[in-house]
Design brief:
Blueprint: H1 2-29, E1 35-36, H2 39-44, E2 49-50, E3 62-64, E4 70-72, E5 77-87, E6 92-100, E7 109-113, E8 115-120, E9 126-128, E10 133-137, E11 140-148, E12 153-161, E13 169-177, E14 180-192, E15 195-201
Parallel strand pairs: 1-4, 2-5, 7-14
Antiparallel strand pairs: 3-15, 4-5, 5-12, 6-11, 6-15, 8-9, 8-12, 10-11, 13-14
């Protein structure tokens, strides 16, 4: 029985990966939204969303879909969102991006955007692209950045789908079938070009 379940899961995941690659080819690479070739162009191609402070469950979700503008990352093209925040010179910040699996997030073939993000200054120069922390659990990926503003001004957080890995497994975890530890299977979450993200700053201490 366990072998049958594992085989079925593998077949479903294989089909899921193929479907996500097809979505990427049909709706991202050949989409109709503008394609930015640099970060400053990416900022100008969309309306920046003021970055909210984390309010827990009230923090809004934002879709990354075929309706959003696109940016070329060289090896792949991605739809993206841009968030803005005002910082003073020397001000500390903690920025976070969550990507959650597609609702209802059940079964073996879970999907989520594998997020990639860039912190930019007002001129589009990249301040940070490698997060300070990364955490993954089945159903969610979280990226976080800690830093200090170099000068007064408007900063931008560009969040996109990492389509270099579209269709590939990004999280593996254990799951119990029928809540039984005797029926433990590996469950994967695969990368999708579309999904929901949350972007927010952590509350600043005085």
């Amino acid at each position: 029985m366990h072998k049958f379940i594992t085989l079925a899961a593998c077949l479903l995941l294989g089909a899921c990966a193929s479907n996500q690659q097809s979505l990427y080819e049909q709706l991202v690479r050949t989409g109709s939204s503008p394609v930015a070739t640099n970060t400053l162009e990416a900022i100008h191609n969309t309306q920046a969303i003021p970055l909210p402070v984390n309010t827990g469950l009230l923090t809004p979700n934002w879709p990354i879909s075929a309706n959003e503008p696109r940016m070329s990352f060289g090896s792949s093209i991605s739809n993206y969102r841009v968030f803005s925040l005002e910082l003073k010179k020397g001000e500390r910040y903690t920025l976070n991006v969550n990507s959650t699996c597609h609702s209802p997030c059940m079964g073996f073939n879970k999907l989520a955007v594998k997020p990639r993000a860039l912190l930019l200054d007002a001129n589009g120069a990249v301040i940070a692209k490698k997060p300070s922390r990364v955490s993954t659990v089945l159903g969610q990926i979280t990226l976080s950045w800690d830093g200090e503003a170099a000068e007064d001004g408007t900063y931008y957080l560009l969040v996109a789908a990492d389509n270099d890995d579209v269709g590939r497994t990004i999280v593996i975890d254990d799951a119990w079938i029928n809540n039984s530890p005797l029926m433990l299977v590996k469950v994967d979450m695969s990368s999708s070009p579309f999904g929901d993200i949350r972007a927010y700053s952590s509350p600043r201490s005085n």
